[in-house]
Amino acid sequence: MKDLQGINLSYNKAYGSKDRALHIAFGDPWESFKKLPAFFYTLEQSNHGTVTKFETDSQNRFTYGFMALGATIKEFNTVIRLVIAIDATHLRAKTRGVLLVVVCKDGNEMIYPLAFGFANSECQSRGHGS
Asked: Can you give the pTM of this predicted structure?
């Protein structure tokens, strides 16, 4: 900013400005989590065969979410190869957590998405061995 605009801008001020701009553009990430159950319900109603799951803990805090679109499930047996890959990547925003994806390859060797999920952590004990 000093070279471009002649302004001294600290790291904290720049980060705060970026955070505020993202909040204005996309809203509060915590509010987005509150909208997920309604989004999942609408997704299931408008896409026949879609499967979703949204789980919270005993204090009503988000634990994990999952979705597999009905069209993907329907075509699963006819287009996939026999290897399914599951992977996760850590999210670095304020909400943290992990994004999970399940994919395989179709008959044309193209990536075929099967399901998506997100959770607080990659591995989490649920207290009953699963």
From this structure: 0.67
Q: Do 75 and 83 form a contact (C-beta atoms < 8 A)?
A: no
SS3 letters for 20-43? HHHHHHHCCHHHHHHHHHHHHHHH
Contacts of 47 (CB under 8 A, 6+ apart): 69, 70, 71
Which sequence spans correspond to the domains of the chain?
Answer: 28-119
- CA-CA distance, 76 to 103, in Å (whole number)? 11
Cα 125 to Cα 65, 70, 122, distances in angstroms: 16, 29, 10
Percentage of the chain modeled with pLDDT above 90: 22
* Distance (Å, whole) CA 29 – CA 17: 16
- pLDDT, the chain, mean: 83
pLDDT of residue 68: 94
